[in-house]
Specification:
By secondary structure, the protein is mainly alpha-helical. The protein is 50% helix and 0% strand. Helix 2 packs across helix 6 and helix 5 packs across helix 6. The chain is globular and about 45 Å long.
């Protein structure tokens, strides 16, 4: 008794081209360095203590130059020595959405990060 599998329709892997173009236009006007900082925080791949320890980067700076705390993906926005500090919970929530990402990029520009 062999279980028969039903043929499933292929998943659509491409997004709507018009929506992608709108998103691309929105991000072209943003500062590239700030967008890079937000994307690094979203992916957790960047100049962060956990990242450097995981990959054995012995000469990397693990502590923040301003406050002396360990660098984390959210540290750019939550540093206690920053002029414009945000809560970790707030930043985590905003990193999950495109609109939130745009907001955090604008905060990076204000902070000159």
């Amino acid at each position: 008794m062999e279980a028969t599998k039903k043929a499933q329709p292929p998943r659509e892997t491409t997004r709507n081209p018009e929506a992608m173009e709108k998103q691309a236009v929105r991000y072209r006007s943003l500062n590239r360095v700030s967008v890079g900082r937000v994307l690094a925080a979203r992916s957790a791949h960047g100049d962060f203590a956990d990242y450097h320890e995981r990959f054995g980067h012995d000469e990397a700076e693990l502590m923040c130059n301003k406050c002396g705390r360990r660098k984390s993906p959210l540290h750019a926005w939550t540093c206690i020595k920053s002029n414009f500090r945000l809560s970790e919970r707030f930043v985590m929530k905003f990193l999950q959405t495109d609109r939130g990402m745009t907001y955090l990029v604008s905060v990076c520009l204000l902070l000159s990060l």
